[in-house]
Every structure is written in C-alpha cells, then in structure tokens.
Design goal:
single chain, 390 residues, mainly alpha, 17 helices, 79% helix, 0% strand, globular
C-alpha cells in the first residue's frame, strides 16, 4: 500500500493516536499530564461546540428534503430507535443472567488522581444537543408545511458551511483529542488497573456489542434486500473515533463521512438519520448498563434484580436512552435516577456503576454509532419503497 495513502487514512491515523496515547500515559509524569489535561479539555470543548451546529445543519435540510414524508419518517425513526434499544436490553439481560456465576470479585482498584489543570478554557455550545435536535426537527417540519423555498435554500447553504467546519476543523483535531484522551486514561490507571479486574466482564460486553452489530446489520440487510457490508465496510474510522472519544456526538462528523461513501443509503434519509440516530439511539450503552446493573447487584447485594423489576427497568430505560445526550457517559448519567429508584442502588453501587461503565463505554459507543448505519439502511429502504408506492 502507498505510504502516503496509508497516512492519509483516518482509521490508520486514529489507531496511531490510540497507541501513542496509551504509551505516553504510561511514561508521563504529573507535570506533563497537567499540560495535557487543559489541551484535551479545549479540544473537547471545540468539538462539542460544533455538535449542535452539525445537528441543525444536517438534520434540518434533510427534513425539508423529505417533504410530505417528513412526519412519517420521524415517527418511524423514533420507533426504530426504541425497539432496537428494548431488544438489545433483553439480549443484555439474558447474557447477564447466563454468565453471572463468572463474577466473584468484590473490590475495586484505586485510580491515580489527576493533577489540577494549569488553565481552563470553556467554550459553551450555543444550545444543548437536545435543544438543537428539537429546533432542527421543528424548523424542518415548519419549512415543509409553509413551503418556504427561500428559507429552504438558506438551509442548504448552511449545510455546506457546517460541512466545511467538519472537514477543516472537527476531523483534523479528532486524532489529537483521541491521543490526549487515551493518555489521561493510561496515566490514571483506568486501562492497566481496572481492566484486569473486570477482564471477564469487558470481554463479554465486547462480544455482546459485536454480536449486536452483526445482528442489526443482518436484520437491516434482510429487510432492505441488500448486502449490509455495503454500509458496514465504511465504518472502520467511525468505530475507532467512537472508542477514542466515547461520544456518539463527537463521532458524528466521521459517521457522516462514512455514510456518504455507501451506495446503499439514500441521500435525503442519510443526512437526516445519521445525526438523528446519533442523539437518540444508544443501543450499545443500554446493553452495557443492563449487563452492568445485573453484575453489580449480584456483587454488592448478593442477588440479581427480579424479572418484573428488570422488565420495568428495561421499558423505562429505553425511553430515557432516547432522551440521553450523545456525550461520554450521557446515557448512564441520564438514567441514574431510574437506576436508584427502580433497582434501589445506593451511593456505593452507583459509584461502582459509573466507574466500570466509563471503563468499557468505548465499546458501547462504537456499537451505538455503528448500529445507526443499520437503522439508516432500514429507513432508506422504507423511504424508497414508500416513494415507489406513491
């Protein structure tokens, strides 16, 4: 392979960033980490500042392109996201019940305390992720209803502007953000201390997430009657970015670029579905949460949640997952009240949940954003069938 082409490949660049970050964290001292932390923070702030703009810039014009089908496509997208989350929750529960005997560990290793940042620069986004998503949907639907062609053309121009921000700012800074993120994880001991402690759990969740991605694309391929590999083969950089950032929102720009390369996804649906699902479809996070609450309940309380309690938890968690922000740990944070109320977790159980979830959140995030491609394939096929009938 051409060396120049190899080093211009996003997947290869991100892989290098992961390994360099892990290595740097092992040898970095407190002074080095105190410099890395604020740089990582600023890069993260810049990325998350762009996220609401990306959502509005891509979702709104995509809604207008769907014209009369916009309301119907929106409703089906919500249903797909909820059903996917609910089924994966049942799958995780079965995996947890079936493998709970493997978990006999009772303590958690200490994590090295991070030094204080030498400076801190906050860049608050113009609006929250959910506000941007709600505004995009409402404005898009309103443009369709009022048939405002002038405003519709402005939205298309704004989409081009946002696309340039993604290509010239977000994507170039992502490898550095991934590198610094893994440096911090490696330094504080999250990787080399907690990983052996929960090795069996990590391996099982990785396997479960991989199986779910395969299952979701298999179902999507059967429904659409196309080879799902036409979509999945472009998701290598997306998976690595998701694992490095632990954020569906931060991975959104790369996911959009990957989806554009697939000839199995229609333009109008793709531009709407990828950003939309990135903010409401967290099947990987839901899988990890359900599996984890079963494990922790057994570890700390000596029993697993009853079937009726877990059924109620799954039903509500699917709804909470739709409203969770696509940020690192967004799903588990949004569902903490539910975990404490329905499952009865106390402060120690909640603290353990947060720490272990953070350890394996990379794989759940990769599942989240990768499975979005499968739902987009289903939605694209549905849209095409609807147009043919019309």
């Amino acid at each position: 392979m051409n060396v120049k082409k190899l080093f211009s490949n996003m997947a290869f660049i991100l892989l290098i960033a992961v390994f360099v970050g892990l290595l740097a964290g092992q040898y970095a001292n407190e002074q080095v980490i105190s410099v890395i932390l604020p740089v990582k923070h600023v890069l993260g702030q810049l990325i998350f500042f762009l996220v609401p703009l990306i959502i509005f810039g891509f979702v709104t014009p995509s809604v207008t392109r769907m014209k009369k089908n916009a309301s119907k496509i929106l409703g089906i997208s919500l249903l797909l996201a909820y059903v996917s989350s609910l089924i994966v929750g049942v799958f995780a529960a079965l995996a947890g019940y079936g493998s709970i005997s493997l978990f006999d560990l009772k303590s958690s290793p200490a994590i090295k305390e991070l030094p204080a940042m030498i400076f801190r620069l906050d860049i608050p986004p113009l609006m929250s992720v959910m506000s941007a998503l709600t505004l995009a949907l409402l404005v898009g639907l309103a443009v369709v209803w009022t048939k405002s062609e002038r405003f519709e053309n402005l939205l298309y121009q704004f989409q081009d502007i946002v696309a340039s921000l993604v290509n010239k700012i977000l994507i170039p800074v992502l490898p550095f953000f991934v590198l610094f993120n893994f440096s911090v994880l490696s330094y504080e001991g999250t990787v080399n201390s907690q990983l052996p402690f929960f090795l069996v759990f990590i391996l099982i969740t990785i396997l479960c997430n991989a199986l779910w991605v395969g299952f979701s694309y298999g179902v999507a391929g059967l429904y659409a009657r196309v080879n799902p590999w036409r979509v999945l083969k472009h998701y290598g950089p997306v998976i690595l970015t998701a694992m490095g950032t632990q954020s569906s929102a931060a991975t959104l720009g790369v996911a959009l670029e990957a989806a554009k390369k697939s000839d199995a996804l229609t333009d109008d649906v793709r531009g709407f579905a990828i950003p939309f699902f990135a903010n409401i479809h967290f099947c990987g996070s839901m899988l990890n949460i359900v599996f984890l609450v079963i494990v922790i309940s057994q570890m700390l309380y000596g029993h697993i949640p009853s079937l009726d309690t877990l059924a109620l938890f799954l039903f509500l968690l699917g709804i909470f997952a739709i409203g969770a922000p696509g940020l690192p740990g967004g799903t588990v944070v949004a569902s903490l009240g539910l975990i404490q109320t329905v499952l009865g977790f106390d402060e120690s159980a909640t603290a353990l949940l947060l720490s272990v979830f953070a350890l394996q959140d990379s794989f759940g995030t990769a599942n989240n954003i990768t499975s979005d491609g499968a739902l987009t394939l289903i939605l694209s096929s549905y849209s095409e069938k609807t147009h043919k009938k019309g």
